[in-house]
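Hi R.,

As promised on Friday, here is the backbone we talked about, encoded as structure tokens. Could you run it through your design pipeline when you get a chance and send me back a sequence?
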């Protein structure tokens, strides 16, 4: 599925990742939404605004192995790959 998932859909998907805690899941949602939202009218922009995660000034990506695994799960589920490039548009 390629699209514009809601925060609830992403939370449901990430609840299946073994060992992921709320910090890992919310961080992944935040960074995924920041990287791929389609503007103020999109679900991803809403998820970014509603996320419980607030990055520090120097943060740019999910933390740790599990956080990155959660982020990668979102990419795998909601994006497609075209010539080695990630496309997450709706």
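Update: got your reply. Pasting your designed sequence below so it's all in one thread:
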């Amino acid at each position: 599925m390629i699209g514009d998932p809601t925060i609830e859909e992403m939370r449901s998907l990430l609840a299946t990742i073994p060992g992921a805690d709320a910090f890992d899941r919310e961080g992944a949602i935040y960074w995924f939404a920041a990287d791929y939202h389609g503007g103020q009218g999109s679900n991803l922009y809403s998820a970014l605004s509603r996320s419980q995660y607030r990055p520090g000034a120097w943060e740019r990506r999910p933390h740790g192995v599990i956080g990155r695994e959660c982020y990668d799960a979102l990419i795998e589920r909601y994006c497609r790959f075209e010539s080695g490039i990630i496309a997450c548009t709706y």
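One thing I noticed while checking it: The chain has four helices and two strands.

Thanks again,
M.
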